[in-house]
Prior knowledge:
By secondary structure, the protein is of the alpha/beta class. It has helices at residues 2-6, 50-62, 92-103, 105-116, 118-129, 131-137, 151-167, 180-185, 205-219, 267-270, 345-359, 361-364, 425-436, 453-466, 470-477, and strands at 40-46, 68-71, 87-88, 140-148, 176-178, 194-202, 224-227, 234-237, 245-249, 252-261, 278-288, 300-305, 309-314, 321-325, 374-385, 391-394, 411-415. Helices cover 33% and strands 22% of the residues. Helix 2 (50-62) links the parallel strand 1 (40-46) and strand 2 (68-71).
Amino acid sequence: MIHKLVKDPGLPVPNPTKSYWQTPGNERLLNIQSLHLHEKRDVVILGSGITGCSVSHWLLKGSDSLTISLMDAREICSGATGRNGGRINAPAIQNYAKYRQIFGHHTAVAIVKFELAHFDALRSVVDEIGPALVHTSEIRQVSAIATAFSQQKVEELRQMLVDFEQALPEYKGVWRIADEEEIVQKYNIKNAKGAVIGKAGAVWPYRMVTGIFEALLEQYQDRYALEANTPALGIYRNSTSEYAYSVVTARGIIQTKHVVHCTEGHTAHLLPMLRGILVPRRGQMTVQNPGSAFPQRGDCSWNFYLDNMDYATQNPSTGELFLGGGDVVGYGPALGNPSDAEEAVSALSHLGGLLPAAFGHETWGTELPGKPRVKASWTGILCNSLDKVPLVGMLPQEALDRPAGSRDSGEWISAGYGGYGMVNAFLCGKAVAMMMLGKDDSYWLPNEYRLTTTRLHSLYHKLGQVVASEERHLKALL
C-alpha cells in the first residue's frame, strides 16, 4: 500500500468512465485547440477544472496584456470538477471542529470563513456572465441537511454547533439541530435520529466551468487559448531566457514565463518531489432515479453520516438524485488510486441501496417501470495533502527537481483540496493569480494554505516519519 501512496500518479487516463455531468459535452470546447500551438506565452496553465478556470479568470481580468494558454491532457473540464458531487457545500460546524483540533482556533475560523465565501464568489462571476449561464448551470442556494443515524452522532453534532457559535457568533442561527421528529416529519428521512440544518450551494459544475471558459474566450480571444487533449510531457527551465520554461507536448513546445499547476490528483506527476505529500484518491458518483413517492427537493443538499459520509443533491428540473461517497473506512483501495477508468464496485453497491434505506420505503416508494434506480455512475480523482490543507503559491526550490524560478518567472501551484474543491479551488486560484500579478492582497487566504519553505520542510519531515509505517501514513492522509 505504501508504494501506491508515493508513486507517480501519471497523466489522466485516456479512457475515463463517462460522467453524467459532461453529457452532452460543450460543443464549442470539445477537442478545442489552436491551429498551431503558440510558441511563446506569458503563462501556461495546466489543468482545466475550476482551479485553472479561476486562475485564467483573475489573471485576464487583472492584466491588460498577459498572454495565456491553458492545457489539459483530456477534454476541457473532464477531470475532478466535471466529475464531482455538484455541491458548493462547506460543512462549517464540522470543519471548525476538525481544523481547530489540527491548527487551533484562529486558523479554524479563517478556513471556515474562506470556505463559506465560495458560493457568493462563484455566483457573482456567473451572474456577471449573464442569466443564460445562471439558468444552464443551475447554480442555487440550498438547505444543507447533515443527517445522523445514531443518537451519539446527533450529540456530537450538537456540541460542535455550540463550539462553532461561540467561535463565530456572527453565524449564530444559520445552522441548527433538527430533532428526530422534525427530520422524519419535515424532511422525510425516516431512519434518521437528527440532523444539522444549514445552508449550502449546488450547481451543474461542468456547465458552469465551461460557460466561464466560453466567456473568457469571447472576451480575450486575442490573448487566451484553450488546448484540449494536449498533455504536458515535461517541463524544463533555462534561466538565461526571458521565457525561461519550456513545456513539452506532442504538438510542440511552448516557451513561457510562468507555469501554473492546477491538476489536483495528478500534480505530483510533473512535480515528483511532492509524491506522498499530494496523494490521489478515487471517488464514486451516481445519478439515480427517485422512487415513485419521493418528493421534489431540488432545494436540498444531504450528507448522510454512516461509517463515512455520503452526499447527495436533487436536480430541480428532472428530480434525478446525484449521490456520491460509499468509501470504506479509511478509503481502502481508493487512496493512492489515480485512475478514473474503473468504478469502485463496493462503493457503487453501497450507493445503489442507500437512498431507500435512509429515507425509508414509505418516502421512497417503488421503482418506476423503465427507470432503473442507478441511471449513471462514474469515478473521479480527488487529492489529499499530507497536512490536510491545500498547497497554494509559488513553488520553491525544495519542491522541485529542476531550478526554481522567481515571482517574475516561476512555477505556481494550487492543489490538495481533499474532496472539497468547490469550497476551496476558486478563491485559491484567485490567490495564485493575485500573487503572480504582484497584487498579493489575498489576506483572506488562510496562512496555512500558503506554500512556504518552512511548510515544505515540515511536510518532508512528516513524510519521512510516516513513510516507514503504512498505518501512520494512511492516518495522516485521512
